[in-house]
Amino acid sequence: MRTIAIIGASLAGLRSAQALRQQGFDGRLVIIGDEVHLPYDRPPLSKDFLLGKVEAVPLADQEDLDALNAEWRLNNRATALLSSGEVALADGTTVEADGVVIATGGVPRTIPNTRVLRTLDDAINLREAFANAQHVGVIGAGFIGAEIASSARALGKDVTVVEALPTPLTRVLGAEMGAACGQLHGDHGSTLITGVNVDSVNVDGGINLADGRRVDADVVVAGIGMRPATDWLAGGPVKVGNGVVCDAGGVTNLKNIVAVGDVANCAGHRAEHWTSATEQAQVATRNLLAGETVATHTNGGYVWSDQYGVRIQFIGRATDDVRLEDGSIEDRKFVATYRDSQNEEDIVGIVAMSNARLFTRLRRNLKQVV
Ligand SMILES: Cc1cc2nc3c(=O)[nH]c(=O)nc-3n(C[C@H](O)[C@H](O)[C@H](O)COP(=O)(O)OP(=O)(O)OC[C@H]3O[C@@H](n4cnc5c(N)ncnc54)[C@H](O)[C@@H]3O)c2cc1C
Asked: What's domain 3-107+227-290's architecture?
């Protein structure tokens, strides 16, 4: 391969570029990103960045970026994949490549008159909006919504979180552990309203709930998930369906095109987590250079979330058979395991609050990997 184009200049894209060089690829590397910024880390955006404790956190320093010897096409959007190796860009140029890495992540779902938090620019705007707000409304009590609520509360705001499900995070952690996470809001003086949809949000920020109630808010943030950024691939040669469809090694229906990170639907599973994006970059680029799938992902879908001073960690999958292994939910310090419904000895998932040590130890016993 002489030229590889990477679409998406963020975590998965950068880690793919680094992995390609580490694996000896010495050809032309073109990295295309529609943001103006060099790759920066997203997790701090909902945490220390909102609190004003850090500014943008680069994913690599200038020396590492220089060592990549890559052509950066930033502030430029890939508009189409014209063939298995020709990428059209918004500035009217095209890039001819022998291999393509798709790393375009996701686009947040939104509700009129709300803000979202996905990019550094979103975070800058939100931080400014928080400075002038007393009451912050958050729609969605998933990881990112909960982190935004936690940061707003730490800034001294009145916070109301509205969640459509009866219990937050049920789809990820199951009802019992989701409820444990939901309790963190009340512990710290935020109001959590569950089991009700949002009808609309007013221009002045008030949230109108489907049951007729109204939540006052000066600023409303929607943390209601995202959709994979695949619009630009429509009608092209790569198969798309809840992300870019690829095998367990990130290889798409075309052997010279791989997908990594939040946009990649690998063997029916799409992770939206930092560690998955990093690991997928290693594996998928190996397969890209090999011209076939020689390795598959083994990350297990690890995710962490920092809320109200508590670190939540989760890996694997949730089942109904969840067992407390250590600590107590009331103390907000515990580790629980999820057992396989067929064989209760098998640990298929682990969740922890503020107990990283035992989480890491039990992780070695995890049966299932994604
Ligand atoms: C606020 C926030 C907090 C988070 N906190 C955590 C956490 O605590 N723990 C955790 O495990 N995970 C966390 N995550 C998730 C983690 O950051 C993501 O999983 C990770 O960023 C995925 O990397 P990615 O490169 O696949 O996608 P992204 O980081 O979304 O990058 C995709 C890039 O591609 C660009 N792009 C899209 N379309 C095009 C196009 N057509 N042409 C060119 N460029 C394009 C986008 O603008 C973007 O720059 C958080 C995410 C956010 C937003």
From this structure: 3-Layer(bba) Sandwich (3.50)
